[in-house]
């Protein structure tokens, strides 16, 4: 359980988890803001199962906010997180939330906003790889350079999201 931490000015990924199960990440702050501070990377996980990521605030990360990578991920609950300007240093490259090769998971009630003068994130929420049977619902997002929410799983449900 990783709860109630402030990750500020990290020079590498603030939280990186690989090949794990039964993980809870909640109530943390990942802040890349402040004068001359542009180094925070957010949350990166790969090949994980039975994971809950909730109630975190990620502001101006260098490379996306919450990234789930690897060959096989499942049973993730990514709920109630706030991600602000997830690709401002590299326009069009990084999404706020990326789930890759993920199944039987929920991405809901998140706020993913690109609030700068110009849009820079790739997309707010992105599902790619061999992902399927996910639900992306009730999120509040902006449209990124490649859209607002992109899914590719034929059985993934994308519903009731608010795009501004």
Count of separate DSSP helical elements: 0
Binned, the helix content reads under 10%
Shape: globular
* Gap between N and C termini: 33 Å
Please state roughly what percent of the residues sit in beta strands, choosing from under 5%, 5-15%, 15-25%, 25-35%, 35-45% or over 45%: over 45%
Q: Please, what is the average pLDDT?
A: 89
**Low-pLDDT residue intervals, each spanning 5 or more residues:** none
SS-based class: mainly beta
Major pleated sheet: 12 strands, parallel
How many beta-strand runs? 19
Radius of gyration: 14 Å
Structural notes for this entry:
- The chain is an all-beta fold and 164 residues long.
- Helices cover 0% and strands 47% of the residues.
- It contains no helices and 19 strands.
- It has strands at 2-3, 6-8, 15-26, 29-31, 43-54, 57-59, 66-69, 73-79, 82-84, 97-100, 102-103, 106-108, 111-113, 125-128, 135-137, 140-141, 149-150, 157-159, 162-163.
- The strands form 2 sheets. Strands 1, 3, 5, 7, 8, 10, 11, 12, 14, 15, 17 and 18 form a 12-stranded parallel beta sheet that branches. Strands 2-4-6-9-13-16-19 form a 7-stranded parallel beta sheet, with no helix packed on it.
- It is globular, with a radius of gyration of 14 Å.
- The termini are far apart.
- The model has no long low-confidence stretch (mean pLDDT 89).
């Amino acid at each position: 359980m990783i709860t109630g931490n402030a990750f500020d000015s990290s020079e590498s990924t603030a939280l990186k988890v690989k090949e794990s199960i039964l993980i809870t990440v909640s109530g943390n702050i990942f802040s890349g803001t402040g004068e001359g501070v542009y180094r925070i990377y957010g949350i990166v996980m790969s090949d994980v199962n039975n994971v809950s990521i909730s109630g975190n605030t990620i502001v101006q990360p260098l490379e996306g906010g919450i990234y789930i990578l690897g060959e096989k991920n499942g049973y993730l609950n990514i709920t109630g997180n706030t991600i602000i300007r997830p690709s401002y240093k590299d326009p069009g490259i990084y999404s706020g939330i990326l789930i890759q090769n993920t199944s039987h998971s929920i991405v809901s009630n998140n706020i993913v906003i690109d609030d700068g003068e110009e849009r820079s994130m790739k997309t707010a929420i992105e599902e790619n790889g061999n992902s399927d049977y996910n639900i992306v619902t009730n999120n509040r997002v902006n449209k990124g350079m490649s859209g607002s929410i992109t899914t590719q799983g034929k059985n993934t449900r994308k519903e009731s999201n608010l795009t501004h």
